[in-house]
Amino acid sequence: MEKGFWIAFIAFFLLFVAFIILQKYLAAFILLLVVGFAFQKLFRLDGFLFFYLLKSKFGIREMEKFSKKEIFSKICDVGFFVVFGLSSLILKKQKKLNAIVGMLVLIFLYISFPFYSLSFINIFSPSISISSLPQTKNDNILSFIILVSFFVFGVFGLTFSAFLVNSYLIFDMFLEGEKPIPGVMPVVPGLNIPFLSGILSLFLAFSLHEFAHGVISISKKVRVKSTGLLIAGVLPVGAFVENDEKKMEKIKKEWQNQILVAGITANFLLSLLFLPILLCMLNIPVEKYVIVAEPYNSTLTKGDIILKFGNFSINSISDLKNAEDYYSSKNISNIEIIVKNATTIFTKTIVTKFGAIGAYFIQEPKDKLFSFILSFVELSFILNFMLGATNLLPIPGFDGHKLLKNVLGKYSKILEYFTVLLFIVNLLPFILL
Asked: How far is the C-alpha of 234 from the C-alpha of 153, rounded, in Å?
């Protein structure tokens, strides 16, 4: 079994590199489909459609060692508070110490929210036209709704309200004839995040998530049968810990909830641990420039660096936004710019729509090693939070599905259907556009 696991692992990794090189949706989908079915047949792997499981006993012995420490169960109790915020005082009888610690962690998350937002923009900006992000009259109200939901209903409230608000914005932008921004998109190393640091960050996030599940499972006398990876063709989409489900169903719901919330809590804690590291690295000397992402003007090329926009020198995304706002207010669409590409610096006059072009802000450490380390820290900071938050959703296959069922009972079904609908709406711009 172990030999088959490593053969399959090496094979899928090589094909994963081929997937990155192709980077074409249709070709990639065919590759996922063919390889998924082929691997299931060749290596007799458990799976469905083109998804399959690479199973191993790796890490179970270490889980058994950590399961003897009671501190991890207490951390899960605090994690429950962070997950559901102040509402957890109603959903579960919280011990005073757990409530105090949970409140402090929640406040810390609340304060650090701007850092998460900025990190998200820096990581995913190649697929978003940052200088021309949609602005609505209700921006402040929508942001207030999300932040209040965050504090009252924890990270679950943050995630659910963000999905709800973005669904409204998607419909609004469709009606206005503008290009909406997806609330959900696949995270693929080499495609929309850096390749090597992306793989390492995702591996760390998935591994810690499942390791935490295993530790708490064993501490509650639920046997862990195997560990491994969930693969879609050649694309690793998650990790798993295979529990004894019959035993899991027999233990009390409080213990089930601790097991379910363990992985999510581990991701939030790891994300918080990377925050001070990220803040310390902000003093590293960087090169800053603004680069064209999705040009509205056909004479610009994706990747061009903007040095000057009309009379404005461009050193940051705010400089570009100020320049765009100025020329838009004057109804000036013919603008002279200075641009740098891979070979030369040149001046040209462009015609823009309302004085706007699609661009995003890049800043990189001058030292390449620091650039890699910073990328890994940023990705670990944001992807751990995203993995934990997404897993909270009451969607079949996610931890939140069983967790919300235990907490809300029959009412969780209504929330489940509504969340799946919101998930699809948030994914639509990525699929259609």
From this structure: 37
